[in-house]
């Protein structure tokens, strides 16, 4: 399947991922309130450490190794079974370790913590990395859409007041478990039943750990924020940060869906020796990611003041400040996603990738240590921005020989000008119309229109931008039919 089709399938799912929280977040935020939302997020942050340790990098490594051997069905099947049996041993050990922690050491929120075990069982049965490796995104998207819709229905039907937090946790955790179990039905016909040895299984341990090591740093600045806020500040502050972060990730998912699609394609392209083709993919992906990420950054910062009050309620007003601070990370994570996920990982440059993410993790931990106690969620958001800046600049330095920085800088400046002008319009509309859903819709529609118009005018006169070239290519194909 082509990159464009895979991207569209993944984008379809990411749009659903964005739309469903747009429906559930206003409801859940008003029903569970910041404390309930924060309790769920805090306990989920703890479970994520055990999920991460249980997978031990197998999800990313498995994606790559399946992509590299997918032209040899027997070899691919051997890799699948040996990797999954390794995953099974590790994840079951992780479940046992978490249950010991939850039963004997967690005193506050013990019930919610125990329910979260269900989502950990979902990791035990997860084989989605195989489908990413063979680029079968349609099946993954279909599964996720069905599960998300059923979860949405269950939340609105069963969660009615703050005391229903356990029910909400059951719904969220069962959706993870069921999603993992369903994928096993799709495996039929894709792999051969082969016998694997313990030696084959163990042979994957060392390379998987190579992918696990940088993942430790990613856990530190993706999850540790919430854990530290819960320990140092309060569950309510966790809830504020978590929901602001959810909005940011909704916007970012439009860009990161491209990276999900490109990882197996880049791994396969490098594996068969098509280096120039891989570079072409990389350059196009970088420009397209920048084209998308910059208006998302300005858009999120521009609509926050009018969006948060009607969307989440007055209990989450502090989310406005947190979201505005977090907005620049959309661009930073888009770039690091291209350099890290689409270049360093497929090419096996794990040392360089590890250096970048550990630099970010160290910065994030230090800033969090200084700022979370006095400033809570705002301090954690500053730490997140500092971490992403560090990762991006380190990666920019490490890939300086392959990335055409002159072209990148020129195109980025054009997009920044268009995005800034869009932000001015969005703020003028917001101040004029006030807080309402209609205001947010008008801001988004006008903002998108202004940004796209300015970019297309810029590229029309230059006639060398990627967006212009791709539009011409598409039109020529359409005319030739």
From TrEMBL:
CDD domains: MATE_Wzx_like. It comes from the Bacteria. The chain crosses the membrane at residues 7-28, 40-62, 83-106, 112-133, 145-161, 167-187, 208-229, 249-267, 288-308, 320-341, 353-372, 378-399, 411-429, 441-461. Its main location: membrane. It is a multi-pass membrane protein. It is found in: Cell membrane. This is Flippase. It comes from Sporolactobacillus kofuensis. The lineage of its organism: Bacteria, Bacillati, Bacillota, Bacilli, Bacillales.
């Amino acid at each position: 399947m082509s990159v464009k089709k895979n991207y569209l399938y993944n984008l379809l799912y990411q749009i659903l991922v964005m739309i469903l929280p747009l429906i559930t977040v206003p409801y859940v935020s008003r029903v569970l309130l910041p404390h309930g939302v924060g309790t769920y997020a805090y306990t989920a942050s703890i479970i994520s450490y055990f999920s991460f340790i249980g997978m031990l990098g197998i999800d990313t490594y498995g994606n790559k190794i399946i992509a590299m051997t997918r032209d040899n069905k027997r070899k691919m099947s051997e890799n699948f079974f040996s990797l999954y049996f390794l995953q099974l041993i590790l994840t079951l050990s992780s479940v046992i370790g978490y249950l010991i922690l939850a039963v004997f050491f967690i005193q506050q929120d013990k019930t919610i913590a125990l329910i979260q075990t269900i989502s950990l069982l979902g990791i035990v049965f997860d084989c989605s990395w195989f489908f990413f490796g063979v680029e079968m995104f349609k099946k993954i998207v279909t599964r996720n859409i069905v599960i998300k819709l059923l979860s949405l229905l269950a939340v609105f039907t069963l969660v009615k007041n703050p005391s229903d937090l356990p029910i909400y946790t059951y719904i969220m955790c069962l959706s993870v478990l069921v999603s993992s179990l369903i994928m096993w039905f799709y495996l039929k016909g894709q792999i051969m039943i082969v016998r694997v040895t313990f030696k084959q299984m163990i042979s994957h341990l060392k390379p998987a750990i190579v992918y696990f090591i940088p993942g430790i740093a990613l856990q530190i600045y993706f999850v540790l924020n919430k854990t530290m806020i819960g320990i140092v500040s309060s569950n309510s502050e966790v809830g504020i940060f978590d929901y602001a972060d959810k909005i940011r990730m909704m916007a970012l998912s439009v860009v990161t869906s491209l990276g999900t699609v490109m990882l197996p394609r880049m791994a396969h392209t490098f594996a068969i020796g098509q280096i120039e083709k891989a570079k072409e993919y990389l350059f196009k992906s970088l420009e397209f990611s920048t084209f998308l990420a910059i208006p998302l950054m300005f858009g999120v910062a521009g609509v926050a003041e009018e969006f948060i009050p009607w969307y989440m309620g007055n209990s989450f007003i502090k989310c406005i400040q947190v979201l505005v601070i977090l907005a620049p990370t959309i661009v930073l994570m888009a770039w690091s996603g291209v350099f890290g996920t689409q270049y360093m990982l497929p090419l096996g440059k794990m040392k360089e990738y590890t250096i970048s993410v550990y630099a970010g993790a160290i910065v994030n931990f230090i800033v969090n240590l200084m700022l979370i106690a006095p400033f809570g969620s705002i301090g954690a958001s500053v730490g997140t921005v500092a971490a992403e800046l560090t990762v991006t600049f380190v990666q920019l330095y490490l890939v300086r020989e392959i990335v055409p920085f002159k072209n990148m800088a020129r195109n980025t400046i054009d997009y920044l000008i268009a995005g800034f002008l869009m932000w001015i319009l969005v703020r003028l509309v917001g101040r004029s119309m006030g807080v309402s859903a209609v205001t947010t819709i008008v801001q988004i529609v006008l903002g998108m229109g202004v940004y796209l118009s300015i970019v297309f005018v810029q590229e029309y006169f230059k006639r060398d931008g990627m967006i212009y070239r791709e539009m011409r290519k598409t039109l020529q194909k359409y005319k030739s039919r």
